[in-house]
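We emphasize that the prediction below concerns an isolated chain of 233 residues; any contacts that depend on oligomerization or on bound cofactors are therefore not represented. The input was used exactly as deposited, without trimming of termini.
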Amino acid sequence: MTKSDPFRYFKTRREIIRLAVMLYVRFPLSLRNVEDLLHERGIDVSHESVRYWWHRFGPLFAAEIRKRRIASMKSSRWRWHLDEMFVKINGEQHYLWRAVDHEGEVLESFVTKTRDKKAALKFLKKAMRKYGNPEVIVTDGLASYGAALKEIGAEHRQETGRWMNNRAENSHLPFRRRERAMLRFRRMRSLQKFASVHASVYNYLCGCRPLCKKFFDWMGDRVRTCVRPFVAA
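Result of the prediction step, given as a C-alpha coordinate string:
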Protein backbone atom coordinates (compact mmCIF):
# COMPACT_ATOMS: atom_id res chain seq x y z
CA MET A 1 0.00 0.00 0.00
CA THR A 2 1.51 3.31 -1.10
CA LYS A 3 1.71 6.14 1.39
CA SER A 4 -0.34 9.21 0.51
CA ASP A 5 1.46 12.44 -0.29
CA PRO A 6 0.90 14.99 2.55
CA PHE A 7 1.44 17.88 0.08
CA ARG A 8 -1.13 16.59 -2.38
CA TYR A 9 -3.81 19.27 -1.97
CA PHE A 10 -1.49 22.24 -1.44
CA LYS A 11 -0.85 24.71 -4.26
CA THR A 12 2.39 25.95 -2.67
CA ARG A 13 5.55 24.07 -3.55
CA ARG A 14 6.69 21.59 -0.91
CA GLU A 15 10.17 23.17 -0.81
CA ILE A 16 8.64 26.48 0.26
CA ILE A 17 6.55 24.81 2.95
CA ARG A 18 9.58 22.97 4.31
CA LEU A 19 11.65 26.15 4.33
CA ALA A 20 8.95 28.13 6.16
CA VAL A 21 8.46 25.45 8.82
CA MET A 22 12.20 24.94 9.35
CA LEU A 23 12.81 28.69 9.69
CA TYR A 24 10.02 29.06 12.22
CA VAL A 25 11.09 26.09 14.35
CA ARG A 26 14.86 26.47 14.16
CA PHE A 27 15.29 30.23 14.70
CA PRO A 28 13.68 32.55 17.28
CA LEU A 29 11.40 34.15 14.71
CA SER A 30 7.76 35.11 14.86
CA LEU A 31 5.27 34.14 12.19
CA ARG A 32 5.46 37.63 10.70
CA ASN A 33 9.27 37.47 10.66
CA VAL A 34 9.07 34.31 8.56
CA GLU A 35 6.54 36.05 6.31
CA ASP A 36 8.99 38.94 5.78
CA LEU A 37 11.92 36.62 5.06
CA LEU A 38 9.93 34.72 2.46
CA HIS A 39 8.73 37.98 0.92
CA GLU A 40 12.36 39.04 0.41
CA ARG A 41 12.84 35.84 -1.62
CA GLY A 42 9.87 36.69 -3.80
CA ILE A 43 7.39 34.40 -2.03
CA ASP A 44 4.15 36.12 -1.08
CA VAL A 45 2.52 34.15 1.76
CA SER A 46 0.59 35.18 4.83
CA HIS A 47 1.78 34.54 8.37
CA GLU A 48 -1.46 32.61 8.89
CA SER A 49 -0.34 30.22 6.14
CA VAL A 50 2.94 29.73 7.99
CA ARG A 51 0.99 29.01 11.16
CA TYR A 52 -1.14 26.41 9.39
CA TRP A 53 1.92 24.79 7.77
CA TRP A 54 3.66 24.56 11.12
CA HIS A 55 0.72 22.86 12.80
CA ARG A 56 0.17 20.52 9.86
CA PHE A 57 3.71 19.59 8.86
CA GLY A 58 5.86 20.34 11.93
CA PRO A 59 5.14 17.02 13.70
CA LEU A 60 5.42 15.20 10.37
CA PHE A 61 8.92 16.55 9.67
CA ALA A 62 9.99 15.83 13.27
CA ALA A 63 8.76 12.24 13.02
CA GLU A 64 10.80 11.73 9.83
CA ILE A 65 13.95 13.08 11.48
CA ARG A 66 13.38 11.08 14.67
CA LYS A 67 12.78 7.84 12.78
CA ARG A 68 16.05 8.16 10.88
CA ARG A 69 18.11 9.09 13.93
CA ILE A 70 16.82 6.47 16.36
CA ALA A 71 18.20 3.69 14.16
CA SER A 72 21.70 5.23 14.23
CA MET A 73 21.81 6.49 17.84
CA LYS A 74 23.28 3.46 19.59
CA SER A 75 25.83 5.70 21.30
CA SER A 76 22.99 7.54 23.08
CA ARG A 77 22.72 4.60 25.47
CA TRP A 78 26.08 5.45 27.04
CA ARG A 79 25.16 8.44 29.19
CA TRP A 80 21.98 10.43 29.70
CA HIS A 81 21.61 13.81 31.36
CA LEU A 82 18.19 14.45 32.87
CA ASP A 83 16.90 17.83 33.95
CA GLU A 84 13.64 19.73 34.27
CA MET A 85 12.98 23.37 33.44
CA PHE A 86 10.24 25.70 34.66
CA VAL A 87 7.74 26.84 32.04
CA LYS A 88 4.84 29.25 32.54
CA ILE A 89 1.50 28.37 30.91
CA ASN A 90 -1.18 31.03 31.45
CA GLY A 91 0.64 32.18 34.57
CA GLU A 92 0.79 28.68 36.09
CA GLN A 93 4.09 26.91 36.62
CA HIS A 94 4.69 23.65 34.76
CA TYR A 95 7.74 21.47 34.24
CA LEU A 96 9.39 20.42 31.00
CA TRP A 97 11.45 17.26 31.57
CA ARG A 98 14.27 16.71 29.08
CA ALA A 99 16.67 13.84 28.46
CA VAL A 100 19.94 14.76 26.72
CA ASP A 101 22.65 12.36 25.59
CA HIS A 102 26.39 12.85 26.07
CA GLU A 103 26.65 14.73 22.75
CA GLY A 104 24.02 17.29 23.70
CA GLU A 105 21.18 15.97 21.54
CA VAL A 106 17.73 16.11 23.12
CA LEU A 107 16.25 12.64 23.23
CA GLU A 108 12.88 13.21 24.89
CA SER A 109 10.73 16.09 26.17
CA PHE A 110 7.79 15.66 28.51
CA VAL A 111 5.50 18.26 30.13
CA THR A 112 3.89 17.77 33.56
CA LYS A 113 2.19 19.87 36.20
CA THR A 114 4.30 18.43 39.01
CA ARG A 115 7.84 17.12 39.43
CA ASP A 116 7.24 14.32 41.88
CA LYS A 117 8.11 10.62 41.68
CA LYS A 118 5.10 9.80 39.52
CA ALA A 119 6.02 12.40 36.88
CA ALA A 120 9.69 11.37 36.87
CA LEU A 121 8.78 7.69 36.53
CA LYS A 122 6.45 8.37 33.61
CA PHE A 123 9.12 10.44 31.89
CA LEU A 124 11.82 7.78 32.35
CA LYS A 125 9.62 4.97 31.07
CA LYS A 126 8.69 6.99 28.00
CA ALA A 127 12.33 7.76 27.18
CA MET A 128 13.58 4.22 27.79
CA ARG A 129 10.79 2.74 25.71
CA LYS A 130 12.09 4.69 22.69
CA TYR A 131 15.85 4.67 23.20
CA GLY A 132 16.61 1.74 25.48
CA ASN A 133 18.36 1.68 28.85
CA PRO A 134 21.44 3.92 29.26
CA GLU A 135 24.55 2.82 31.11
CA VAL A 136 24.80 6.03 33.18
CA ILE A 137 22.08 8.52 34.14
CA VAL A 138 23.30 11.93 35.33
CA THR A 139 20.78 13.99 37.34
CA ASP A 140 20.68 16.89 39.75
CA GLY A 141 19.81 16.58 43.42
CA LEU A 142 16.05 16.23 42.90
CA ALA A 143 14.82 13.32 45.02
CA SER A 144 12.18 12.35 42.44
CA TYR A 145 14.88 10.96 40.14
CA GLY A 146 16.28 8.66 42.81
CA ALA A 147 12.84 7.37 43.80
CA ALA A 148 11.84 6.70 40.18
CA LEU A 149 15.14 4.99 39.32
CA LYS A 150 14.88 2.84 42.43
CA GLU A 151 11.45 1.62 41.40
CA ILE A 152 12.66 0.50 37.96
CA GLY A 153 15.84 -1.03 39.42
CA ALA A 154 18.32 1.44 37.92
CA GLU A 155 19.44 3.35 41.02
CA HIS A 156 23.00 2.02 40.60
CA ARG A 157 23.29 3.88 37.28
CA GLN A 158 22.53 7.30 38.74
CA GLU A 159 25.30 9.88 39.10
CA THR A 160 24.95 13.29 40.72
CA GLY A 161 27.48 15.99 41.32
CA ARG A 162 28.32 19.62 40.89
CA TRP A 163 28.64 20.69 37.23
CA MET A 164 28.07 17.12 36.03
CA ASN A 165 24.72 18.05 34.53
CA ASN A 166 25.86 21.12 32.59
CA ARG A 167 25.16 19.29 29.34
CA ALA A 168 21.43 19.34 30.10
CA GLU A 169 21.49 22.87 31.49
CA ASN A 170 23.08 24.25 28.31
CA SER A 171 20.55 22.42 26.12
CA HIS A 172 17.77 24.55 27.67
CA LEU A 173 19.14 27.81 26.23
CA PRO A 174 17.93 27.43 22.59
CA PHE A 175 14.46 26.50 23.79
CA ARG A 176 14.39 29.48 26.17
CA ARG A 177 15.22 31.85 23.31
CA ARG A 178 12.48 30.29 21.22
CA GLU A 179 10.01 30.52 24.11
CA ARG A 180 10.59 34.27 24.48
CA ALA A 181 10.07 34.83 20.75
CA MET A 182 6.73 33.00 20.94
CA LEU A 183 5.63 35.03 23.99
CA ARG A 184 5.28 31.81 26.01
CA PHE A 185 2.67 29.08 25.66
CA ARG A 186 -1.01 28.91 26.49
CA ARG A 187 -1.69 25.17 26.68
CA MET A 188 0.20 22.07 27.79
CA ARG A 189 -0.64 20.38 24.52
CA SER A 190 0.92 23.15 22.42
CA LEU A 191 4.02 23.18 24.63
CA GLN A 192 4.46 19.41 24.33
CA LYS A 193 3.99 19.57 20.57
CA PHE A 194 6.46 22.39 20.00
CA ALA A 195 9.07 20.99 22.40
CA SER A 196 9.14 17.66 20.57
CA VAL A 197 9.34 19.25 17.12
CA HIS A 198 11.93 21.82 18.17
CA ALA A 199 14.18 19.13 19.69
CA SER A 200 14.17 16.99 16.54
CA VAL A 201 14.77 19.87 14.14
CA TYR A 202 17.45 21.45 16.35
CA ASN A 203 19.27 18.12 16.69
CA TYR A 204 19.25 17.64 12.94
CA LEU A 205 20.36 21.12 11.91
CA CYS A 206 22.76 21.91 14.77
CA GLY A 207 24.45 18.56 15.23
CA CYS A 208 26.82 19.53 12.44
CA ARG A 209 27.28 23.12 11.27
CA PRO A 210 28.39 22.20 7.73
CA LEU A 211 25.27 20.03 7.39
CA CYS A 212 23.09 22.94 8.49
CA LYS A 213 24.75 25.29 6.00
CA LYS A 214 24.45 22.79 3.14
CA PHE A 215 20.78 22.22 3.96
CA PHE A 216 19.83 25.89 3.83
CA ASP A 217 22.00 26.50 0.76
CA TRP A 218 20.27 23.61 -1.00
CA MET A 219 16.86 24.75 0.18
CA GLY A 220 17.60 28.30 -0.98
CA ASP A 221 18.54 27.05 -4.46
CA ARG A 222 15.31 25.05 -4.66
CA VAL A 223 13.24 28.06 -3.57
CA ARG A 224 14.97 30.42 -6.01
CA THR A 225 14.39 27.93 -8.81
CA CYS A 226 10.68 27.54 -8.16
CA VAL A 227 10.00 31.28 -7.68
CA ARG A 228 12.11 32.53 -10.60
CA PRO A 229 9.18 32.48 -13.08
CA PHE A 230 7.05 34.55 -10.71
CA VAL A 231 9.83 37.06 -10.06
CA ALA A 232 10.50 37.42 -13.79
CA ALA A 233 6.82 38.01 -14.42
